[in-house]
Amino acid sequence: MKLYNEPYPAPNPRKVRIFLAEKGLSVELVPVPMRERAHKAPDFLKKNSLGQLPVLETDDGRFICESIAICRYIEALHPASPLFGRAPFEQAMIEMWIRRVEFRLWAPMSQVWRNDDPRTEHVVTTRFADFGAHSRSVVADAMTWIDRELADGRPFLVGEGFSMADIVLLCGVDFAKFVRMPIPEDASHLQAWHQRVSARPTARA
């Protein structure tokens, strides 16, 4: 298999790299330099018509897009040490937290990146500065809410075990910092969680 990806700070490819590292798996990493717009080149658009990363090329030459879909495919092939849960309730809770983090943190964070970050001015033709600024407050609210959820002392988003939900949140929180939205100083539970998961060797994948 091949993973078409871009190094940090691109958060979506990073999710897959951390997932692979947690599973103890390795695939060929094919760099796609986004700063050079390589992800919008005609040859790459044949792999993903949206021109986005990551993309997984399977052993038989088919392509899977979207980080969660890629990770689910790999988990189905390599079910040992599952990161999407074992029992039905655990699986449901992990899915719940993935969706919550995607909607409450990732969605507004992407609007900040598109509309309120100087590094995207040359690639986003139509920007809405007010919406971008508002989205910053939405991201801060999301982090405050997650902090409250972690106040019960659990080490990870879904109880005692590190899961795909933690990977999604870690990559989101780190990218938020990249766009000048660090974890609020008074969010001590989220801060502690972040220190814990960042200390895992796989976080550097």
Describe the protein's architecture and organization:
The protein is of the alpha+beta class and 205 residues long. The chain folds into two domains: 2-77, Glutaredoxin (3-Layer(aba) Sandwich); 88-204, Glutathione S-transferase Yfyf (Class Pi), Chain A, domain 2. Helix content is 50%, strand content 7%. It has helices at 11-23, 42-45, 67-77, 88-115, 129-149, 164-178, 188-198, and strands at residues 2-5, 28-31, 55-57, 63-65. It has a four-stranded mixed β-sheet with strand order 2-1-3-4, with helices on one face. Helix 1 (11-23) packs parallel to helix 3 (67-77) and helix 5 (129-149) packs across helix 7. It starts with a strand and ends in a 7-residue tail after the last helix. The model has no long low-confidence stretch (mean pLDDT 95).
Number of domains: 2
How many extended strands?
4
Please write the string of helix (H) and strand (E) elements.
EHEHEEHHHHH
Q: What number is the mean pLDDT?
A: 95
The rounded distance between the terminal residues' Cα atoms is 17 Å
Radius of gyration: 17 Å
| Fraction of residues in helix | 40-55%
Indicate the proportion of strand residues.
Answer: 5-15%
Q: Write down the CATH class of the largest domain.
A: Mainly Alpha
How would you describe the shape?
A: globular
Number of helices: 7
State the secondary-structure class: alpha+beta
Major β-sheet profile: 4 strands, mixed
CATH structural architecture of the largest domain: Up-down Bundle
Residue ranges: pLDDT <50 for 5 or more in a row?
none
Topology of this structure?
Blueprint (H helix, E strand, L loop, with lengths): L1 E4 L5 H13 L4 E4 L10 H4 L9 E3 L5 E3 L1 H11 L10 H28 L13 H21 L14 H15 L9 H11 L7
Parallel strand pairs: 1-2
Antiparallel strand pairs: 1-3, 3-4
Helix pairs in contact: 1-3, 1-6, 4-5, 4-6, 5-7
